[in-house]
Specification:
It is a single chain. The chain has one domain. It has a two-stranded antiparallel ribbon. The two termini are about 25 Å apart. The longest helix is centred in the first third of the chain and has 13 residues. The protein has about 90 residues and is an alpha+beta fold. Helix 1 packs antiparallel against helix 2.
Protein backbone atom coordinates (compact mmCIF):
# COMPACT_ATOMS: atom_id res chain seq x y z
CA UNK A 1 0.00 0.00 0.00
CA UNK A 2 2.88 2.36 0.72
CA UNK A 3 3.97 2.12 -2.91
CA UNK A 4 0.54 3.32 -4.07
CA UNK A 5 0.66 6.30 -1.75
CA UNK A 6 4.24 7.21 -2.67
CA UNK A 7 3.53 7.01 -6.40
CA UNK A 8 0.52 9.30 -5.95
CA UNK A 9 2.58 11.78 -3.92
CA UNK A 10 5.38 11.70 -6.49
CA UNK A 11 2.90 12.42 -9.27
CA UNK A 12 1.48 15.43 -7.40
CA UNK A 13 4.95 16.73 -6.55
CA UNK A 14 5.83 16.99 -10.22
CA UNK A 15 3.70 20.14 -10.20
CA UNK A 16 5.69 23.37 -9.80
CA UNK A 17 3.51 24.45 -6.87
CA UNK A 18 4.14 21.40 -4.68
CA UNK A 19 7.56 19.94 -5.54
CA UNK A 20 9.21 21.60 -2.53
CA UNK A 21 6.72 19.94 -0.18
CA UNK A 22 7.32 16.32 -1.18
CA UNK A 23 8.60 15.20 2.23
CA UNK A 24 5.76 16.90 4.09
CA UNK A 25 3.17 15.54 1.68
CA UNK A 26 4.54 12.00 2.01
CA UNK A 27 4.39 12.19 5.80
CA UNK A 28 0.86 13.63 5.79
CA UNK A 29 -0.43 10.96 3.40
CA UNK A 30 1.18 8.17 5.40
CA UNK A 31 -0.30 9.51 8.65
CA UNK A 32 -3.75 9.73 7.10
CA UNK A 33 -3.78 6.21 5.70
CA UNK A 34 -2.30 4.63 8.84
CA UNK A 35 -4.36 6.43 11.48
CA UNK A 36 -7.16 4.20 12.72
CA UNK A 37 -9.17 7.19 14.01
CA UNK A 38 -9.79 8.33 10.44
CA UNK A 39 -11.81 5.17 9.81
CA UNK A 40 -13.57 5.38 13.16
CA UNK A 41 -14.77 8.94 12.44
CA UNK A 42 -16.25 8.14 8.99
CA UNK A 43 -20.01 8.52 8.97
CA UNK A 44 -20.54 5.98 6.22
CA UNK A 45 -18.17 3.04 6.01
CA UNK A 46 -18.25 1.61 2.49
CA UNK A 47 -16.27 -1.50 3.33
CA UNK A 48 -14.67 -3.12 6.30
CA UNK A 49 -11.01 -3.86 6.77
CA UNK A 50 -9.55 -7.13 5.54
CA UNK A 51 -8.25 -9.37 8.30
CA UNK A 52 -4.90 -10.84 7.27
CA UNK A 53 -4.39 -14.43 8.40
CA UNK A 54 -1.01 -16.08 8.68
CA UNK A 55 0.08 -19.68 9.02
CA UNK A 56 -2.03 -21.85 11.30
CA UNK A 57 -4.98 -19.49 10.75
CA UNK A 58 -3.52 -17.01 13.25
CA UNK A 59 -4.68 -13.39 12.63
CA UNK A 60 -1.80 -11.09 11.69
CA UNK A 61 -3.59 -7.75 11.48
CA UNK A 62 -5.84 -5.55 9.40
CA UNK A 63 -5.16 -4.38 5.86
CA UNK A 64 -4.89 -1.48 5.32
CA UNK A 65 -3.98 -0.41 8.81
CA UNK A 66 -6.59 2.36 8.99
CA UNK A 67 -9.12 0.54 6.74
CA UNK A 68 -9.19 3.38 4.21
CA UNK A 69 -7.92 2.42 0.77
CA UNK A 70 -6.07 5.15 -1.12
CA UNK A 71 -7.51 6.40 -4.38
CA UNK A 72 -5.69 7.87 -7.32
CA UNK A 73 -4.90 11.59 -6.94
CA UNK A 74 -5.94 11.64 -3.27
CA UNK A 75 -2.80 13.68 -2.58
CA UNK A 76 -4.41 16.57 -4.46
CA UNK A 77 -6.60 17.08 -1.39
CA UNK A 78 -3.64 16.99 1.00
CA UNK A 79 -1.22 19.15 -1.01
CA UNK A 80 -2.68 22.59 -0.12
CA UNK A 81 -2.19 21.84 3.59
CA UNK A 82 1.56 21.90 3.02
CA UNK A 83 1.36 25.69 2.64
CA UNK A 84 -0.10 25.92 6.15
CA UNK A 85 2.55 23.85 7.90
CA UNK A 86 5.92 24.97 9.13
Amino acid sequence: MDDLILSDVTEICQDDKYFIFQDQLEACAMFFFRDRQVFDMLKSKPNGPILAVGPNEKPIGLFPACSVLPVQHFSNYLAPFCYLSD
